[in-house]
Structure formats: C-alpha cells, structure tokens
Design brief:
Porin; 47 strands; single chain; 43% strand
C-alpha cells in the first residue's frame, strides 16, 4: 500500500509540474515602451490591458510588461487625453511592441461638469486633474532653462496712478496750481474709472542665459523714471514697487506678489489647493488645439488665484495663455483687485516662451472707498533666440552690467527702442512730475510730510530732529529734553555734521553728541552705496543690553517700561569708523572705539582687592573692530535715519571681530570677541513663512562682565523681534553663546477656515527664541574674585550666567488686527527663580503690511 501510495504521490507531482510547464510554454507575454508621438517622451501610468481581462500600467520610463495564460488576442492602450489604441497580438508567444500615442482633444474634453453645487469635487478620476498633472510633469521641459542658450530683449514699464480722484479734490481752490496734473487722466484703461498717473519708470535690457556652466547676464541699455527730489528715496521707491509687483513665472511653484508667496495654479502641490474644470476645446490662429481650463481655490481666503489657462495638446502640455485674478475674500490687506495676464509665443522647436506679462493691481485703505491707487507692470520679450551660443566673454564679469549714461538717454532712443508706444497720458508723466518737483509749495508739503513720518524738518542746509526723541523720561534722568539736528547735502556733499544736546532734570546732567562725517565718493552719506569716514563723541545714558530697531533710544514711546527699570550706565564714547559698501551688497566697516562707562541706577561696580570690597567708579577700554556684511540682492528704502528693509528670500551674513587693547588710551583689558549672525526669511508656500535668525559669539581672554555679551532684553510693552521680550535688562551675560530665533507667520492658514473669523482676516503667529551659553571660570565673578561682581539688589543677585542651560521663551500671536497690529502672548519657560521677572506677558507691535 505504501508503495502504491508513493507512486500516486510522485505521479501527481509530475503531472502538476508538467501542467505548469505546458502552461508556461503557452503564456502570452507582451513587452514594450510607450511614448508621446510628438515629443517622443516616455509616458507614465498608461493603461495596457488585455481586452476584457486584466492589465498593467507603464513605469516612469514608459515601459510595460503584460502577461496572460488565456486566449485573449487583443490588447488596449489608453491614456487620458490620447487616442485609445487596439492592437492584435499572437497568443502564447513573447513579443515586443512599442506604441506612440497621439493626443485626442475629444477624449480630454469628454467630461460632464455638473452645476449642482452639492456635488463633491474629487481629484480622483477627474480628467481635468489628470491633464493638469501632465502640465506639472512637463514643467521642466517648458522652461527657458531647458535650452543650452537663450537670449532676448526685455522691456519693463511700471506705472502707478491715483484712481477715481474726486472732482471736489481736483477742483479745490488750494490745488489750482496743480491743475496740469488733474488734466492728465486716462479713462480707457480701467473700465468705469479715471486714472491720474503719478509714477512711471521704464527699463530696457538684453538678457543672456547659458546652461553649462550655468550663468545669466543682463546688460541694461536704458533706464528712465520720474524724480520726486531730495525728500524721497527714489531708488527705494523703485525697489519697493518692483518688490510688490515682481516678475511672474507661472512654472515656479510660488509667485511673489505684495511681499507674499501665492501658489501657482500649476505648482507641484496645486491639485491639493485648487479645483480644475475643463471648459472648452479651441483652435488658435495657427491651427493648434488648446484646452481651456478654469481653476479656482478650494478656500477663497487663501493666497490663491482664479482664472483660465489655455493648455497645448501637442504633447508639450505647455501654457499658451493665462488670465487670472484674486478672489475678493483673499486674506490680503488694501488690495481690491489683482489681475495677471500672460501671453506665450511658439519657438522654432515647437515649445513656448513668455512673450508678454501684464500685472494690474488696485489698492485702497478700505475696499469700499471710491479712490485708491492703481499699479501696472508690463514686461515684454522680443528677439527671442534659443540654442545660439555666445562667446564666454559675454558672460564674464558681474551678472548685471549697466551701460554708460543709461539714465540720461534722449527721447529719440526710447521712441525707437520701446516695445510699445506710450499712451498720450503716459507720455506727459515725466514732464509733469518734473514740473511738480520744482514747485516750492510741493516741496513744503513734502517737508511737512517728512517731519510727520521721519521726525525731521529742514531749514535749508540744516535739518532738526528726530521729533520723537525731543522728550522722554526714565528713573535715572527723570524728565529729559533733547534737541538736535544735522547738516544736509545742501551745505556740502563731502562733509556732514550731526549733533544733539539733552538735559535730565533728575540727575541734573547735560548729555551731548557730535559727529563729523567725510564722504569719500562725493555722495550723500544716506545714499547707497556708502563710503565715508566718521568721527564722533557721545556723552549719554544707555540701558545695557537694550538694542532697538528703527527707533532712537530716547524715543518717548519707549519711556514706558515694565518692572524695575533701574539698570543704567553713563557712556563716554569716542568712535572712529570707516564704512565701505559695494554694489553687490558686500560691505565692511573698520572701527576704533574708546569707551568709558560709569554705572548708574542699581548697577554698582564692586570687586575684591586683597579681600576688601572696593568700588570701581568706571571701566575704560579701547577697541579695534572689523565687520563684514554680505546681503545678496538686498533691497531697502532709505529713510532719514534708518534703512527700512524690503525682505526677500536671500540670507544676510554679518561677521564681526572686536579686540580690546590694554594700555591703549588708558584701556584696562585685553580680550577678543568674534560674532556671526545669519538671518533669512524662509518661504513655505501655503504654510506661510518663517523669519529665522542664527547667531553665535565667543569672547577670548579675561574681561569683566560689562565687556562680555549682555543678551538683548526688552522691558517695554512693545514686541521686539530681535530681543527677548520677558528677559530683564542685563539679566544674562555670556562669553560664549549660540542663539536661534524663529518667527513664523501662518498667513491665516487656520483662521481662514473658521467661518466666524475668516472675515476678520486675522493671521496666526508662532515664535520661539532659544539661547544657549555660559561663562568660563576665568570670566565668572563667582569663581574669580579679581573680577567685578554681579550687581545685587536687596541682597539678591540680578545678573546671571546661563549655566549651560538654555533660556527659552515662546509666543503665540494674532496679527493683522485692524490691518496694522500684532498682539502676542509671551511665555518664559525657565529661569523662573530669578528675581523680579515675568513668566507671562502680552506685547503689541505696529506693522504696516499687505
């Protein structure tokens, strides 16, 4: 029985193997590659199936393998937007069949768009989304960077106008002198509104691109713009306006406009945030088939567009034309309307390049107001050439080169080289603004506006200010009056003087400042690029560790402080410095400082001398310093006192070295300090952006704590970005530290989705600040009795080392309150045992932003 059973088992096994072998011999195998018939590019996810049976899809290389043991002799190849192919095959054999698919507009357009608002929109099995994904996949092939060489002529025109100026204002008796401005209006550009041009600039350049090694070159042939005179930074105005309305590249994931990043409708993540609908199939004037695609945001409060794009069906899946605009509900201040129109032209190889870009925007204080501002930026491209090599000499030198006297070209040059003729209204703008700038009444108006905004008022070669520093108060000086001013280029373009005098009614002391600056490039010392030598002397008070942005320390509004504001020093500082800036935004500063500081308030300098506590009246030190700063592609508006940055995506690096030299002008200490600071705005598309600052420093040698790094603290009620808002003045010092600050703006990512809040257009903020550092034993007064002791108040130490434990504070905030305010709830996470500190706080900040 066992023998018989074994025979049966072996027989069944042999039969099974034989059957499998026969089946494998009869299996049908079809392999191949599928490409686009026009571009010859491989197609991914093409469906390849046995008719009536199972199938597969192609991989990223367009390759497929199909297997079957059945008797089906027909396979089907289908892909959205292409003609379906049916092909006979030989059953039971392995064969290799390649396919070239041709586009089929009917297949793409054969979709029913329901008008039922309750119908749920889906990306899955949506021909419109399938088509837009194909556009996204082909973006690298439709960009200029796809070519080895590209060159073209580019013309830019930027215009700003007042829209719908009220007749009462235009006919006002006080404005009779300015009637020539009100008569120059355009009623044809914006339907139903009149435009009064107040700003115009033009630029003509030749552009070159080389792929390998990659290099771009811009040769500026001509520049022209209106000039409002000395009271306005005309370069800064131009930079700011061009930052608001930048070049539009629809193939980029993000489109920068009004200092924000809008998600492109063909961004990699666009199908997550947009909805797409195929509207029509059309034929252009050259006979090319185009799909008209409508797109709209899923959430109308997000920074997204609505509009139509026309997509080619020639295998390139390129954008041939695009018209888009903003939703009325978008979380953007002051902008009532924004429209973008892009036109493309075909290259000799069948692909498309941008031929004209037009961006129009209207803004007003309120969306319901009748008047406002209208801005338009037009960029056109001509003489577009591809893959025509140029000598390497064309790309040598800096990336941007301006020909001589580009801003002084005659009208005949512009009439001959403009890509489009100026309208009758536009042609009068230059002469009108030139006449306006020369009018004494207009200059007086600008002078008054400058006093209100910047705090300076001019008296010919001298200007007085800043007004916000005229009056202040603090616990050491009591009421403090200050009066100062400086000379202007009207006195001299080479030599500048600045001074102020102040008096404290409590300490009954005079304070003063005097500086002399010599310009080495015969330009104003408030105009980029700077190149000057300055000598100054200052006798005044200061809070150790306080560092302010865009305001004077004597500013009246900063006189109000929380907690004990009793840490002060009297400074006597002589400073000599040389500043040199370059066009590429690289700059360096060489300096010398002799500094005597005397403690005031609760600060007392004491140290042990032979076991006896001795009072130190003051500290003297002389320092030499060098600083290198690189801010690639930095933009700013030059104010009367400060440069107001126009923040972009590029980082800023600052490296500073300082050395104290003992014996030099009674200097008492030898030490060296090195500090590196890196700051950058990181854009994260629909997640908002983060302002990040990384900083570190190290002090070599032995020095008392007032000469170490006193970390920036803030005891005002204003939220300060570069300070620790719940740290007390002079609370922490270090001779080595590393710090990280992240200030993230969500741009309404959460509030835009809450029905009751979305109309308020509030914006969420999240901030974290961490500093890690400490003091070596040789610089720690607790371990080195030869050093000045940390100050005490009522027997409690008030200045500390970080003790190798980081100081951490964070905040959550709400921005865009009434469009101008930011309010943060700040939390201090550690070092809560220190005296007179706050663990929670509410801070506010004023910020004008779109």
């Amino acid at each position: 029985m066992k023998t018989k059973s074994g025979v049966v088992k072996w027989g069944l096994l042999a039969l099974f193997i034989l059957t499998g072998f026969v089946q494998s011999m009869a299996q049908t195998v079809v392999k191949g590659k599928i490409v686009d018939a026009f571009s010859k590019e491989p197609l991914q996810y093409v469906s390849v199936v046995f008719k009536g049976g199972r199938g597969t899809v192609t991989d990223s290389l367009g390759q497929y393998t199909l297997r079957s043991s059945g008797n089906i002799s027909v396979i089907l190849i289908s892909y959205v937007g292409y003609k379906t192919i049916q092909r006979d095959i030989v059953v039971g054999k392995e064969q290799n069949i390649d396919f070239e698919l041709e586009t089929d507009p009917k297949a793409v357009y054969n979709v029913t768009v329901s008008t039922n608002k309750r119908a749920k929109y889906r990306n899955k099995n949506n021909p419109a989304v399938d088509l837009i994904r194909r556009v996204i996949d082909n973006k690298p092939l439709n960009r200029p960077e796809k070519y080895d060489y590209v060159e073209y002529d580019q013309y830019e025109k930027l215009e700003v106008s007042l829209s719908s100026v009220p007749e009462k204002l235009a006919n006002n008796r006080m404005l009779r002198k300015y009637q020539f401005l009100f008569e120059n209006v355009d009623s044809t550009k914006l339907q139903g509104k009149t435009l009064l041009p107040v700003y115009l600039e033009e630029k003509l350049a030749q552009k070159y691109y080389r792929k390998n090694p990659e290099k771009t070159k811009t040769i500026v042939r001509g520049e022209k713009r209106v000039n409002y005179g000395e009271y306005i930074d005309n370069d800064g105005v131009s930079s700011y306006l061009n930052r608001l309305i930048m070049d539009i590249d629809i193939y980029d994931n993000n489109i920068p406009l009004f200092t924000y990043q809008f998600l492109s409708p063909i961004a990699d993540l666009a199908p997550t945030f947009y909805m797409y609908y195929i509207r029509d199939t059309i034929t252009d004037e050259t006979g090319n088939k185009l799909i008209k695609m409508y797109f709209t945001p899923r959430n109308t409060n997000d920074l997204l567009f609505r509009g139509n794009m026309f997509i080619t069906l020639d295998g390139n899946y390129a954008v041939q034309k695009l018209d888009m605009f903003l939703s009325r509900n978008v979380n953007l201040n002051f902008v009532r309307e924004l429209r973008v129109d892009l036109d493309f032209e075909k290259n000799p190889d069948g692909r498309y390049h941008l031929s004209k870009s037009n961006v129009m925007a209207e803004a007003a204080v309120t969306k319901g107001s009748s008047g406002g501002f209208f801005g338009e930026r037009t960029v056109s491209f001509k003489n577009y050439k591809i893959n025509e090599a140029k000598p390497d000499s064309v790309y040598d030198g800096p990336a941007t080169v301006k020909l001589e006297k580009v801003d002084k070209l005659p009208d005949a040059f512009w009439q001959q080289n403009r890509h489009d003729t100026l309208t009758a209204t536009e042609s009068k703008v230059y002469s009108n603004i030139d006449s306006l700038e020369k009018m004494p009444s207009f200059r007086r108006t600008l002078a008054f506006a400058t006093f209100l905004l910047a705090g300076y008022t001019s008296f010919g070669p001298f200007e007085m200010g800043p007004a916000a520093a005229f009056y202040g108060f603090n616990p050491v000086e009591g009421f403090k009056l200050r009066l100062g001013g400086r000379t202007t280029p009207k006195l001299s373009k080479r030599i500048y003087f600045e001074t102020y005098g102040a008096y404290g009614f409590k300490d009954e002391r005079w304070k003063y400042f005097l500086s002399t600056t010599y310009s080495l490039n015969n330009k104003s010392i408030y105009t980029f690029p700077l190149k000057f030598i300055r000598a100054s002397y200052q006798h005044d008070t200061k809070i150790p560790g306080q560092e302010l942005q865009f305001v004077q320390e004597d500013n009246f509004f900063l006189s109000f402080k929380r907690g004990l504001n009793d840490k002060w020093i009297y400074n006597d500082i002589f400073k000599l410095e040389y500043v040199h800036e370059f066009q590429n935004r690289l700059s360096y500063t060489l300096g010398f400082r002799n500094w005597r500081h005397t403690p005031a308030g609760s600060i007392v300098y004491n140290k042990f001398n032979n076991g006896v506590l001795q009072n130190i009246a003051s500290i003297n030190t002389s320092e030499i310093s060098a600083q290198v700063r690189w801010a690639p592609k930095e933009q700013f508006y030059q104010g009367k006192v400060y440069r107001i940055p126009i923040i972009n995506k590029y980082p800023i690096f600052t490296l500073r070295y300082t050395a104290g030299v003992k014996g030099l002008f009674n200097s008492e200490y030898n030490y060296q300090n090195i500090n590196l600071r890196v700051e950058k705005r990181v854009f994260m598309s629909q997640l908002g952006y983060s302002d990040m600052v990384l900083e570190g420093g190290y002090t070599f040698g032995s020095a008392p704590y007032p000469l170490l790094t006193i970390h920036r603290a803030n005891q005002t009620y204003a939220y300060q970005l570069n300070s620790y808002n719940l740290m007390n003045f002079q609370e922490f010092v270090s001779d080595q530290f590393a710090a990280l600050s992240i200030d993230h703006h969500f741009n309404g990512l959460i509030f835009n989705r809450i029905p009751l809040l979305r109309k308020l257009k509030l914006r969420e903020l999240l901030t974290m600040k961490v500093i890690y550092g400490g003091i070596r034993d040789e610089n720690n007064p607790d371990k080195n009795p030869d050093l000045i002791k940390f100050p005490e108040l009522n027997g409690q130490t008030t200045t500390f080392s970080l003790n190798r434990k980081p100081y951490i504070e964070g905040s959550v905030g709400v921005g865009n309150i009434f469009k101008i305010f930011r309010v943060d709830l700040v939390r201090r996470f550690n070092y809560k045992e220190n005296p007179n500190i706050s663990t929670w706080g509410v801070r506010a900040r004023f910020k004008f932003d779109f």
